[in-house]
Amino acid sequence: MLSRTQPTRELATVLFTDIVDSTTQLAASGDQVWARVLDALDAVTRSEVRRRGGEFIKHTGDGALMLLPGPTSAVDCAGALHSGAEQLGVALRVGAHTGEVERRGQDVAGIAVHVAARLMASAGAGETLVSGTVHALASRSAYLFEDRGELDLKGISEPVPAYSIRQLAPAKPAAAPAVSEVGSVTRLLDQLRFEEAAELAADIDPIALVEPLAAAGGRIEFLDVDVTLVRMLRDLLERLPEDAPVGRARTAAKLAFELRGDPASAEERRRLLDLAIELAEAARDDIAISDVLLATIHAFWEPEGVRDRLNAAERVIALTRSTHQVDHELEARLARVHALVELWQVHEAGLELASYARLAARLERPDVNVYVASRRAMLAQISGRYDEQARQGEIAYQNATQARMPDADRLRLAHRWPVSRDCETGNETLEVGLVMLRQLAELMPGNYYDLDVAAVLLDSGRTSEAKVELIRGLPPLFTSTGYRWLAAATNAARVAAAVGSEQECLRLYDALLPHEDRLVVIGPNFLGPVGDHLGVLELRLGRVDAAIARLRRTITALDEIAALPWAARSRAHLAEALRAAGDGEGADRELATALDLARSLGMDRLVSEIQAVPTTSSEAVWSLKRDGNDWLVAAGSEQARLRPNRGLEHLAVLLANPRRDVASTHLDAGMEIVPVGAELPRLDEQALAGYQRRLREIDAECEVADRAGDQPAAVRLEEEREFLLAEVRRATGLGGRRRTAGGAAERARVNVTRNLKRAIEQIQRTAPVAGAHLATSIRTGLHCRYEPAPGGPSSWQIDTRG
């Protein structure tokens, strides 16, 4: 497998330029004037290369290295660069060769690069010198090639056939002042000094400003609006002549893109993009069309436009085969990842992300690597791989910091948020997020952050405050749309179902219903299926049967894409709906399954919520009794006769000793009942660590009980401490050295675990509710334990006499 820095090879036409007599001109003009000339030439070079689908690689002193998609475009670009240099009062020498190049990060290497560089060095003022390969492959209808014979080039082992393309007119000594100012504007925009750039831009030829302003940005956070840049783009669009359709198309598209954070500009954005696509398609300019399509994707990220976004992204990807616009391809592939996830095509999204990552690896750009790691974290979150999500989130943050992204800290919190929300029971991270969201609500009004605040308040248990924020945030949600609309609407639905009015729930239900088949993704975060939120709202509105049907469909779909955390949540919601319909046993079964899944994923918050839910059978007594050679299990309405096996004997012992660790060696030896106070075998490492951790917790809880004067709690904690200390002392030798369990204990663990698994599977086939409860409640290892989960009885009657 290729490493990330392994060079890749591709066929391209290499173009080198250099300014003739640059040292002499620098001495004559002075540093300040010469810097403006270089800036202007750089702007012209980048613009001409981009127009032809090429790639600017790097500066080489007073020249540049570029890749063009083919010989004809390279020759055409060379002619345009000579003309641009002539307007600036300088002359270029240019060399070109077509061959294989090696990609090494953002640079290129290989024999083709050396040949092009040596040809450039052999060219005269105003001359383009190309290899025989370029001559053979380029269209010669518009150019006159002069055969220069075979040249011996330094460092090249064999003579290279060379052809000259000479400019018809010599370079003029004077430069147009307006053109030379373009470089200054470009430099100021690169330095994010937009206000100074705006002052200079007013006196510059508008066509020359299209490229610098199209590339401008990076000064503000996502969804904010840079009013200075917007003003410059509006002025430029008004000044551009009618006979510059491509420039007008690109400027209109850029303006619509920059307005995407202003909810009030929706009509203007639509009008601008309609104009842009009309102009670009009329000009048949693939690069301009690609520009407009990408602006459309970002400027109209409304929930109803997901398929339009997917189609636009796929169209841009197809266009890059001819335009060779790597940045466009990256943006389009990232947009496609999001659209595929929203449409439940998570596997396909993973494949698309892999393509994006391979393309990004060639560039070695930290800003691109941010999105690779961030979207990997999102896919890990969907499947419940929280450790991987946290790891990729940290990689994304490190790259964002390296790329000097203004919202790097906010990105870091966005990645930590789901892990904290799902896997921690404390509210520390939620409180930090709450502060950030309140700031964003003030900074970017109209982007529904008030509803995110409401959701965090609900998760923190501050229900009264959550209700106030819900009331404050709903009016704009019902009267507008935008990038964050669907995420905000699902957060609002969750809060309304918990603390809102019936009218609020009904309005949110009607608003979300058109998007019932969508998954909700916002940046790197996955907020689950709209179907789950609709099901909870239906339950709140008394539509119990509809809620059950919808939640069952949603769970089936979640299982198909292995979205395990939300499958656990939706099962907990289904249990609530089943209980409302009078199906207590079905509710207990779903709740037990949800609890088992949440525990396996480490979703401590959901585990706590489920354990707090009272179950239908919480007052029931179930039984496991011998009947001759067979066993009988009775669990509510379920009764089953079971063939005898060792696992049922082990199970009887555990059920008779709930919430106690019983050694596998005792079970394997055939001990029927462990009497209270009987010596239990030594603890394994995991149990010992758990006891030691609990002892530390008890110390803190005793202090709280003492300060509060809670004598019963203090007595209970002290009794628990004495028990745990006895267990730890029994598990360790002199000086605290660990006593080992030995080979016999390990053999007993294997036997007992296998026997219990077979017994529970046997029960599940004939008594599924009891089987699901036992599968969730039985813990195995060197010590086994029955830890009753929700959905079980208040106690078990055990009779092993037969």
Question: What would your notes on this structure say?
Answer:
The chain has 802 residues and is α+β, with helices and mostly antiparallel strands. The longest helix is centred in the C-terminal third of the chain and has 25 residues, at 742-766. The radius of gyration is 35 Å and the shape is elongated.
User: How large is the radius of gyration?
Assistant: 35 Å
- Please, how many helices? 34
What is the 3D shape? Answer: elongated
Distance between the termini: 63 Å
Oligomer state of the chains in this structure: single chain
Q: Please, what is the average pLDDT?
A: 82
Number of strands: 17
The largest sheet, given as strand count, sense and whether it forms a barrel, is:
8 strands, mixed
Q: What class, by secondary structure content?
A: alpha+beta
Approximately how much beta-strand content do the residues carry? 5-15%
Please mark out the parts with pLDDT under 50 across 5 or more consecutive residues, or reply none.
1-5, 167-179, 673-681, 733-739
Helix fraction by DSSP (H/I, runs of at least 4): 55-70%
